[in-house]
Amino acid sequence: SYFYTQRIMKAGSPVSYLSPAGFTEGAGVLPDGPLNAAVGETVMFTTTLTPTEKPFQVVGWSFNKSKTIIISTNVNITGPEYEGRITFFPSTASLQLRSLTLNDSGEYIISILQADATNHQGRTTVVIYGEQMLKSNNLVEFSGSVSLSCSASGSSLSFLWFNGSSEVTASDRVQLTDGGSSLTIITVTHGPENINLILSPPQGYFAVGSDISLTCSVGSRPPAQFKWFLNGDQLPDTGSELRLMNVQMSQSGNYSCQAFNSKTLRSQTSQPSAITVLGKSASVKPSTNLPVEGTSVSLTCEASGSVFTRNWMKDGSDLTPTDNMILSDNNRVLTFDTVNRKDNGEYFCQISNPVSSDGAKYIMTVNYGPENVQIKGPNKINIKGTLKLTCSAESTPSARFSWFLNGTEILTNSAEYIKEEVELSDSGNNTCQAWNNITERTSSSAVHGLTVTDLSSGCAAGCIAGIVIACCVIIAAAVGGGYYIYEKK
């Protein structure tokens, strides 16, 4: 019996597909077979004989017991079908056969007569791989379906299809027919449907000079074509994204997008999205993007054009300055002498004049810590048990942690220290140290004592250490007492 496998390559490329499962023995002269090779390749028959300087008396190679390949005595006689296709190696009686065809599949026999009248004979089988061709119809994207067919020489074939390195199997869109040699992929067109217009940034009011992006998403196969409209008038832009750069007041209005499917001939239009461009451009600029607790931070409310009033709010309420806050330059600058974590929140600057108003916000996150480092986990554990210690610290952003056992670093950049099977040597002090990469501060370390016990011996690592110390004390006392008696005498 034979097992078959197939790999799909580009159209017209021959590939191997045959791999027999049986074998024949070479009777000690030739290695066990079969020998596998593809059409056009070369096969080497290497004997197990030791190379000799003296040629064998007679060597004969034959195919399927009927065709002579070569007879070597003091001269070489080559069969007509093998002229120019073989190379004979007299020292080992090995043979190389080139330019293989399907007809070269079969049994090869070698007969050797040595000068001492010793005879050797061996046989093995060669299987020549066939040739496969992959054909397809003309491929047109979203044309409805595509068919691929694979033809191969040989019998009792089975076929495997691959998309890249992944095997293709039958599904609602993939059909395998004709014993697996034909593959049909069905393309289903649909849409457009579920159209959605996304505004970024997601706000309705924008300052002059802002950059705005509108994205139209829709379900469609093939991909939809897009049109854009402002107040019902078509814009020259196409594509799924409309970018408005350096917007002006004249660009205020209702924007909408329309998607069209060239196959289904259907279209769908989104709900309008209102964009209002204000005449005043407000912004809040911090003196630093990463405020650190204990340092000075300033928020400056900037605006283009004339500004008559500036008002500050925090978290939606009018700002009441605390002891560490100072408002200056007609409320243009809000300064924190020493910012702290209680100053976290949303700061909003409202600017106005008699004809328009605008505002800008800034969300302050004060970075601090790490502090109050703590370790949670067991203080006593049996040998071979799983140890899990968790380190925590108050910190913004979240702290990074390093672990030490008895002063030696064992883990970095992890809030958890886990060891699957603890040993007695794991007893001691586990230390966790926290570090904040923004504040560049390192916390004081937290220390967690751990004792590893061995229930089988009935004594923990600390117990053993205590016994050793006690023995040392007793010995020292005995030596000291003996010396004292000696001195007294």
Automatic annotation (TrEMBL):
Highest taxon of source: Eukaryota
PROSITE patterns: IG_LIKE
Keywords assigned: Disulfide bond, Glycoprotein, Immunoglobulin domain, Membrane, Signal, Transmembrane, Transmembrane helix
Pfam families: Ig_2 (PF13895), Ig_3 (PF13927), V-set (PF07686)
Keyword Thylakoid: no
Ig-like domain residues: 192-270, 272-367, 370-448
Transmembrane segment boundaries: 464-486
PANTHER family named in the record: CARCINOEMBRYONIC ANTIGEN-RELATED CELL ADHESION MOLECULE 5-RELATED (PTHR44337:SF20), CARCINOEMBRYONIC ANTIGEN-RELATED CELL ADHESION MOLECULE 8 (PTHR44337)
Protein name: Ig-like domain-containing protein
Organism: Oreochromis niloticus (Nile tilapia)
Lineage, broadest ranks: Eukaryota, Metazoa, Chordata, Craniata, Vertebrata
